[in-house]
Design a protein that fits this description.
- This protein has 74 residues and is an all-alpha fold.
- The protein has five helices and no strands.
- Helix 3 packs across helix 4.
Length: 74
């Protein structure tokens, strides 16, 4: 698993919506790759913050798309 492959599966990993083998491969990659680990941790914390602040309200799809578009640039 390389950095590009792990980024492609970032949200599946965070949501635990990938198969066990891929999950393990990403975990191994993150142990050895500090830049990827930093990115995954940032995304994880951002996702948690959104979840906590929007727990009663539904986030509009347009806002979600804008956020994803911005994050994909980095």
């Amino acid at each position: 698993m390389n950095c590009e492959e792990s980024f492609e599966k970032l949200y599946g990993f965070l949501d635990k919506d990938i198969d066990g083998l891929t999950l393990t491969q990403i975990e191994i990659h993150l142990k050895d790759c500090r830049p990827c680990w930093d990115r995954f941790e940032f995304e994880k914390r951002l996702k948690e913050r959104f979840r906590k602040s929007c727990h009663k309200e539904v986030c509009p799809e347009t806002l979600l798309k804008k956020i994803k578009d911005i994050l994909e640039k980095y």
